[in-house]
Amino acid sequence: MTIKAGFSKICINPPLGAPISGYYMQRFTKGILDDIYVRAVAFDDGKKKAVLVTLDLCLLEAEQFALYKKTISEFCNIPCEAVFITCSHTHTGPIVGKDFASELCSDPSYDKHLTMCIRDAAAFALKDLKPARMYSAKSEAKRISFIRRYRMKDGSVKTNPGVFNNDIDHPLGTPNETVKLIKLVRDGADDICLVNFGTHPDTVGGEYISGDWPGYVCSGLEAAVPGTKCMFLLAPQGDVNHVNVNPTPGEASISTIDFDDVPRSLEHAKHMARVIVGAVLSVYTIAEEVKSGDISYAIKAVRIASNQQNDCLDEAKKINELYSSGRANELPYEGMELTTVVAEAERIINLSNGPEDFEFVLSALKVGDLVFGGLPGEPFTEIANRIYDGSPFGNTILCCISNSDGPYFPTSKAYSEGGYEARSSTLKPGGDNIIVDGMCELLNEIK
Fold it and tell me: For residue range 52-71, what is the model confidence (pLDDT) as tens digits?
């Protein structure tokens, strides 16, 4: 069966002064380092159509995902389940809706503009449909993604404990350095490349809008292979980022230590993109054809118990009051440890009156022997690896921050270990098993 595929992208830069998402501190747009986009890839098997949409944004709430899916569904006359939306998680993109870490909100006029851009990108991709053949390949991007949770020599666990920290004993896990390529070779039109890799896009920092390294992957690959359009899909990355705690002199020279002891720079983001583009180019011409076939899509709801700790509520309120009133210097923490205790306190306060559990939506979009799996929030790398092992598809592309909001999804053992992700997560231990089992069941159902 021959499928058809189409592509579109629309710039979604915010206005000057727009609040920026990504940290527990206020930032406002001072300019544009590089344009950010909504990108869309459409599929048509002759009977069904589906649209895959990526947004250069950090996060979205469930209501926003639902609004965009409904808007595309009604305008393009396709089912809501046929619309797959995922975020790049850039930490230098605008807040949309209400910020996760403050009382800041986006401007309603920008929200309306963004909704129309997302709708139009999907519609343009559907208008761009051309016969296509699918190909896949894998490579590796070395020394750009690192586990960010470390066992310290005193037995404690810290997230991002700092570069050249002699108190580090060992990392708690192994990064997945796999780069996946899906290449859609179209008749009489530009090829479409979908690139999948997982680590935090938190490399640029500052108050200037940027798509971070995922954006540079897209522009870099399009420049390296003329006649190609690129979409980036972020794989699960809840416990990995760009921070090498033991960099070479050359690696250390391209970044500056930021407010939270994390090295960041635009040049570091460009370096990461070059490594990923290089990995893609190493397999670009030897990708193997993937069998085309019917399009199908499905969703599955799962429930996970909330991580309430009302016995710690009084202390959480004290921490929150000091931080929110600008007296963080009175807390005995700094850097990422300060971020950890503030996020933990906010979680305890927010959950003091419930709910007892949360519902999350898992999603899947199948095109022949290729499947895109959508996970809410930010699952740890190990969770993704377990889903890959249980997937019945040879070509499984997992995407985080997709189709529904969600927190960090740590492994169960991470709660007893500690660190920012487990201490801030709104979910009780055991959520990893529910997510893995639910997604594997969904993939087997759609097979």
Answer: 999 999 999 999 999 999 99
Q: How far apart are CA 136 and CA 428, in angstroms?
A: 37
User: CA 305 to CA 210: how far, in whole Å?
Assistant: 36
Predicted local distance difference test score (pLDDT) of residue 99: 86
Residue 59 has which token pair? 């996060």
Q: Phi-psi category of 394—alpha, beta or left, where left has phi over 0 and alpha has psi -120 to 50?
A: alpha
How far from 55 is each of 63, 197, 276, CA to CA, in Å?
A: 16, 16, 19
Q: What is the pLDDT of residue 255?
A: 97
Q: How far apart are CA 404 and CA 29, in angstroms?
A: 26
What is the structure's pLDDT at 102?
A: 78
Residue 75: CB partners within 8 Å, gap ≥ 6? Answer: 119, 122, 123
What does the pLDDT average to over 229-236?
A: 98
* Rounded distance between C-alpha atoms, residue 116 and residue 263, angstroms: 36
Do the beta carbons of residue 344 and residue 423 sit within 8 Å? Answer: yes
Q: Is the pTM of this model over 0.85?
A: yes
- Strand 130-140 versus strand 178-186 pairing type: antiparallel
Name, in order, each residue with C-beta under 8 angstroms of 294's C-beta and a sequence gap of 6 or more.
1, 45, 47, 48, 366, 368
Backbone φ and ψ for 338, nearest 5 degrees, come out as -65, -45
Alpha carbon 282 to its chain's center: 24
